[in-house]
Specification:
Mean pLDDT: 89
CATH superfamily: Cytochrome c/b562
Order of helices and strands: HHHHHH
Radius of gyration: 15 Å
Number of domains: 1
Structural class: mainly alpha
Strand content: under 5%
CATH topology: Four Helix Bundle (Hemerythrin (Met), subunit A)
Bound molecules: heme C
Helix content: over 70%
Length: about 140
């Protein structure tokens, strides 16, 4: 169990270390998505905290919030909204289907946490939560500069 949490922690550090800049000057939709990504960062931290403290209802709430963000995320990337302070890779608009797939993978990973909560399966919750962190990283690797 401790080993699993260490893995989770490593995942978290990898996800967050490259991620946080303040972009107060970003325009419109770019600022909105940055704020939503920051919120998702809080949500995934809260998800891991609620797993540590065994709060099933909180685990579910945080996972649902992440899944909902996954559903709408592509809408926050209209064509031409890259460049400037944005770290969005041009790859997003070259391969928008691939980007949508990555958002879907993230959504499904978050929903798999909800399913594991419903089964009351702690091991499954932990591995599902890890797959959420992996889906953040894997999209960043491909679609964020
Ligand atoms: C489908 C792709 C995708 C997924 C999934 C994804 N991200 Fe991102 N993320 C991006 C892109 C693209 C940007 C750059 C946005 C920009 O700068 O315009 C970004 C930016 C961020 C930022 C920086 C926001 C800022 O203020 O500039 C944070 C923090 C972040 N993501 C955290 C996360 C976390 C945590 C997860 C998982 C819970 C996650 N992301 C999942 C694509 C994704």
């Amino acid at each position: 169990m401790i080993r699993v949490f260490l893995t989770l922690l490593t995942t978290l550090i990898l996800v967050f270390s490259a991620a946080s800049y303040a972009h107060k000057d970003a325009p419109g939709i770019v600022k909105e998505r940055m704020d939503l990504f920051k919120k998702s960062q809080q949500d995934i931290k809260a998800l891991y905290a609620s797993i540590r403290s065994d709060e099933l209802e909180d685990i579910r709430t945080n996972a649902v919030a992440l899944a909902q963000w996954g559903v709408v995320m592509p809408d926050y990337f209209p064509e031409g909204s890259g460049g400037g302070v944005s770290e969005a890779s041009a790859e997003i608009w070259k391969d928008f289907d691939g980007f949508k797939d990555a958002a879907k993978t993230f959504e499904l990973a978050a929903l798999s946490v909800v399913a594991a909560v419903d089964q009351g399966d702690k091991e499954a919750i932990i591995s599902a939560a890890k797959s959420v962190g992996d889906s953040c990283k894997s999209c960043h690797r491909k679609f964020r500069n």
